[in-house]
Amino acid sequence: MKKIIIINGVNLGELGNREPDWYGNSSFEEYLKKLRADFPELEIDYFQSNSLDLLVDKILSSKNYDGIVLNPGAFTHTSIVLADAIKAISVPVVEVHISNVAKREKLRRESFISAAVIGTITGFGLKSYRLALDFFSTH
Ligand code: DQA
Asked: How far is the CA of 10 from the centre of ligand 1 (A)?
């Protein structure tokens, strides 16, 4: 069975309460139950942190996974260290965003991690994660 880890960054522990017009009404934990049910062929682990250091440590210690689904939250637009961590491992990473970042403020159009990942899925709501898992399921 393929092992995948979903890593959510800063403020993504607040899904369900946070800016529902952008991020919807479901907590990630609720949505994760559906993802696990819908992808029985994948073993899906989950990690969320608001700490950049812990996110880097988690990426570097994920070498035994077949894939990483990563939504760094606002660190996407500020952090070179996450890109460096991704480049330090050989596990394929898919970048996901719930909202369509291209449609929002200009500062959200830049991603420091896009150049280090296989591809980016953005703007499909929580379904962005499903699309990333679909990629790993058939990859
Ligand atoms: C986000 C988009 C980021 O710009 C924002 O800071 C987030 C969430 C998304 O999933 O749409 O926290 O990564």
From this structure: 9
Range of the domain at 104: 2-138
pTM for this predicted structure: 0.97
Based on the residue annotation, tell me whether 23 is a catalytic residue of this protein. yes
Q: How far apart are CA 45 and CA 31, in angstroms?
A: 13
Catalytic residue among 23, 31, 65, 129: 23
Q: What ligand 1 atom has the least distance to the C-alpha of 128?
A: 10
Q: 125, exposed or middle or buried, with CB in 10 Å at 0-12, 13-18, 19+?
A: middle
Q: What is the pLDDT of residues 64-83, one digit of tens each?
A: 999 999 999 999 999 999 99
Tokens in use for 37? 């049910």
CATH of the domain at 130: 3.40.50.9100
Strands 119-122 and 93-97: parallel
